[in-house]
Amino acid sequence: MRIGVNSGSLPKHLHELERENSVEALVTAAVEFVELMERLDFEDFKVSIKSTSVPNTIASNRLLATKIDYPLHLGITEAGTKWSGSLKSAVGLGTLLADGVGDTIRISLSTFHAEEEVKVAWEILKALKLRERGPVLIACPTCGRLQFDMDTVVAEIEQRLEAYEEPIEVAVLGCAVNGIGEASHADFGITGAKNEGLIFSEGKPLKKVPQDRLVEELFAEIDRSLKVGRTVVDESKAAEGAEWLQRIEDENAGEMTPERLAAMEAAAANADDGDEADAVTDALVARERLTLDEDASPTAGRRFTRA
Ligand code: SF4
Q: How many C-beta atoms lie closer than 10 Å to residue 296's C-beta?
């Protein structure tokens, strides 16, 4: 049984407190209901405080968790559309769950497709690594080095992954300029260049493929490996892929990418030696200046569009 209070329907005797401190009012109401249940000899229930306000939901559930020992049910009431409601729920419920507060959750979206609410709930739980269920897709944020039509590729991969139940992690990198180390934890991944791309697994190349076969070949590799319960590696194809990757890395050794920029910033911040930090920062600034020349864009004429 679930009992609880909603910010829109607090008992009358708490309206004044609500005006002064809405979080206190919500928690007081919830505790009063709990005490009523105990007087009636009910013990098997969970408690929810629902509010349309994300900060109030977080604050009231944190406070309630210090006052009662019953399981808490979390939700942002009337959260909104699929887009805004998912974000509000992820922020509110994610914050509480990361604190260890909350036992069950409900996502409330303005949609007739209730399964969307379930999907969002699972994504929140998976993101916090509280539950494993089905694949996790990770993708780089893209930048000027992007060398293929990643938007549609990621969307297609996400859709096709819905058919899988295995908790595999699949990575999509917009380019191979940084190598594939960034996604070395992924079970499977792809990265693309001008005409060709690479399928990789756990940071190691599996094979290079034509750009327009990236998605098909990725799923062929996933299926093959899942069938036998381990990643299947064809050594000659893997070697060919590694050679291709090395060539891409060598060709772009001087390119400044978000990952390299972050690495240099971290080096500058961590350097014990002040002179060394200055030198790294100077190099960083010089490279940034170089990349500001739009005419010299590394992707000029190299973008790939899927038919
Ligand atoms: S440099 Fe990084 S962010 Fe930019 S496209 Fe390549 S992998 Fe994506």
A: 9
CA of 247 to the centre of ligand 1 (A): 17
For residue 62, which phi and psi values (nearest 5 degrees)? -60, -45
CA of 70 to the centre of ligand 1 (A): 46
For residue 183, the 8-state DSSP code is G
Cα(8) to centroid(ligand 1), Å = 46
Shared-domain flag, residues 182 and 236: yes
Domain of 53 in residue numbering reads as 2-127
Residue 241 CA, ligand 1 centroid: distance in Å: 19
Tens digits of per-residue pLDDT, 207-222? Answer: 999 988 999 999 999 9
Atom 3, ligand 1: residue with shortest CA distance:
142
Is the distance from the beta carbon of residue 202 to the nearest atom of ligand 1 less than 6 Å?
A: no
140 lines ligand 1 (CB under 6 A): yes
Rounded CA gap, 236 and 224, in Å?
17
**Distance (Å, rounded) from C-alpha 53 to C-alpha 87?**
13
| Total domain count, the chain | 3
pLDDT band at 26 (very low <50, low <70, confident <90, very high): very high
Q: Does the structure show a pLDDT above 60 at 274?
A: no
